[in-house]
Design a protein that fits this description.
Length: 339
């Protein structure tokens, strides 16, 4: 074999290695340092909402699910999020406030593409966009957007969810997902995504817990299933509450349903004030109620700050949904947190 042929062979091998590396760069380039240690030590915060009574999800069942790993000095915690476009994730505003100043994008790592966090791809944030009227004491306008540093490439494992504008009926089933703790005794968040089923509640049942609550079709929707001791739990904050419709050809491969985004896990409380060993409200206890930010109510806020059209964002724009003119919160510019 002459020298030129040897050189060509070497160059071809190098090119092949580069192409393979590029193909897996989604996982390797953004894989956090000491990932396993971070996952083991991701203790959920006291004010993070709470999956208990759940079961493991299957691959590609929720390709829009994102996990947020926040690391601010000695404060490490987990939240969830939902992919709504190649560049944006929606989550809870309170997840962005480990400190009074709010977390910086550089303090946030986002896992996508696999329900098992040890196999997920990790991406970086460019900006954090918090609703300007978010109030952490009253827990209102609990919604934020994360702009990614680089756009995602949609495929079977990574895709977006669309926003459900349907009116909420008492007893409607919702699916919630998250990487939070799986029992009231757990001290660390889960490394695998879980799901459970909850139900939209009568506002009258929720009012004793949240005094100003009177409708599931405004900024908050009340969802629970404490009769079966199922609930979101600590570390699930920011993740989605989802409605399901027959998929046709629009859902994940081999899926019989398409999930649409109804709510964002915000917080839970109970009239009976049952607490765990740390003094926190127990998840799934008798009398417990979960409150979820109603994403459709904030459609104008999302559209204005992502530059995405309503037609792109929503799953249904018919008259059966929330009337576009009289229920949406006004268009507002977000409070931007940069590095």
């Amino acid at each position: 074999m002459n020298t030129r042929l040897i050189l060509q062979t070497i160059l071809s091998a190098v090119a092949l290695a580069i192409s393979i590396a590029v193909g897996i760069s989604m996982i390797s380039k953004y894989r956090p340092q000491n990932l396993e240690e971070k996952l083991d030590r991701a203790v959920v915060p006291l004010n993070s909402d709470r999956i208990v009574g759940g079961k493991l999800v299957v691959a590609n069942e929720f390709p829009f699910a994102a996990v947020l790993k926040i690391d601010v000095g000695s404060s490490r915690y987990t939240c969830g999020g939902t992919i709504i476009s190649e560049k944006f994730i929606v989550t809870a505003a309170h997840c962005m406030y480990a400190t009074a100043r709010g977390i910086k994008p550089s303090e946030l790592e986002i896992g996508v593409g696999n329900p098992d966090l040890t196999l997920a791809g990790w991406v970086k944030a460019k900006k954090i966009l918090v609703h300007p009227d978010y109030n952490g004491l009253l827990i209102t306008n609990d919604i934020a957007l994360i702009e990614l540093n680089e756009p995602l490439s949609f495929n079977d494992t990574i895709n977006r969810a669309q926003i459900d504008l349907s009116l909420m009926k008492k007893g409607s089933e919702m699916t919630v997902i998250g990487w939070g703790v799986t029992s009231n005794e757990s001290k660390t968040s889960s490394k695998v995504l879980e799901k459970t089923d909850l139900y939209v509640q009568d506002p009258a049942k929720c009012a004793p817990v949240r005094k100003d609550f009177n409708s599931n079709d405004l900024d908050i929707v009340c969802i629970s299933n404490t009769e079966n001791h199922k609930d979101t739990c600590y570390g699930d904050s920011g993740g989605p509450a989802l409605s399901a419709v027959p998929s046709g050809n629009t859902g994940p491969p081999n899926s019989k349903v398409k999930y649409n985004l109804v709510g964002i896990t915000s917080y839970g409380d109970s009239t009976q004030k049952v607490v765990d060993s740390k003094g926190r409200p127990e998840c799934g206890s008798d009398g417990a109620t979960g409150f979820y930010t109603r994403v459709g109510f904030f459609l104008k806020f999302i559209a204005a700050n992502t530059k995405l059209t309503v037609e792109y964002l929503v799953a249904n724009t018919t008259s059966s949904g929330i009337p576009l003119s009289d229920k949406f919160s006004p268009q507002q510019s977000a409070l931007t947190i940069d590095n």
